[in-house]
Amino acid sequence: YPSEFLMQKITEDNQIPVHLHVSVSLQYVAGLKGNALVEFFHGNIAEVENEELRHLMWSSVLFYKTPNVEVMACVLLSTKAIYFLLDDSFIHADEHQSDFWNKENSDCENSSFHLSCCFVLKLNDLQSVNVGLFDQYFRITGHSADHIVTCLTRDSYNTHTFMQQLMAVLSLLARTPSPEPVDKDFYSEFGSKNTGKMENYELIHSSRVKFIYPNEEEIGDLAFLVAEKMDGLTNLQSLNILLYVLAFQVNHVEGSAQNTSSLQPKTLILTSSDLFLFDEDYISYPLPEFAKEPPKRDKYRLADGRRIRDLDRVLMGYQTYPQALTFVFDDVHNQDLMQNLTLDHFGE
After folding, report:
1. N or C: which end of the chain has fewer CB within 10 A?
2. CATH 2.30.29 fits 216-329, yes or no
3. Which CATH number is associated with domain 4-104+111-172?
């Protein structure tokens, strides 16, 4: 152990996305190759001697307790647990853990010793995995609010690969078999279904972990929400969502020493007539079973919306992935210009 193919695959996957900045400690991890990476895992991260590293992925992550802090993480999947090796900026951003970290490691602040914290979710504690629309992200749910993490891969291939690897390691778990199902009578079988809401597609794995995929209704709900934001000018039947993608909006920081830009996570939705940017809550929906009250914010909040017919030009950057796009719109303050001209001319 491990095979040459696995070593090569993990080494290839060990690359930080170029547009995201990480701490020195995670840059060190990203510089490891082959055997050095496996030895690092067993020496510093693995909790059990005989567990095997099966998959590595770099992704932005969100925690249920800190839904506003998106942090870069190296996600390591082994035969026993999922490890999230976190950027040390998270330690200072997370109020729940800051006291613990600062008290324990205050002497390391100014030394050349760089610290990362590691969040561990044991596979035995895993209850469900919710896959987001178009495989742009997925949420892993354990048995409490501390054990809910969303990985914002922004990439359907990475999501799909992780799901395959996770199902493979879950198949190795020895769990007690589920009790035999009780024969249901007619009323209990059909009475509980009368909620008026279609359930999402569920795949219950042999390890009893649920894999939940979105159904067509989620797109329908999204189309309805988008139509509302368009002030009902469009017939809902003719409204098609052509593209849903998790992206970043680039905000240039003025007056900084370097020409830096901050990246604001946004959900981009393109219809046949409009382009929208939404602030989406990726961690709170669907509600976990233990949630006592609904989340404080809606799943989708409109950040910006423009009509395609006002689009003047699209500027494309020449760099490789991720591609930078600049949309330039005509600066028309009064969108329905012709309609109002007519009213002014013929009105009283």
Report:
1. C
2. yes
3. 2.30.29.30
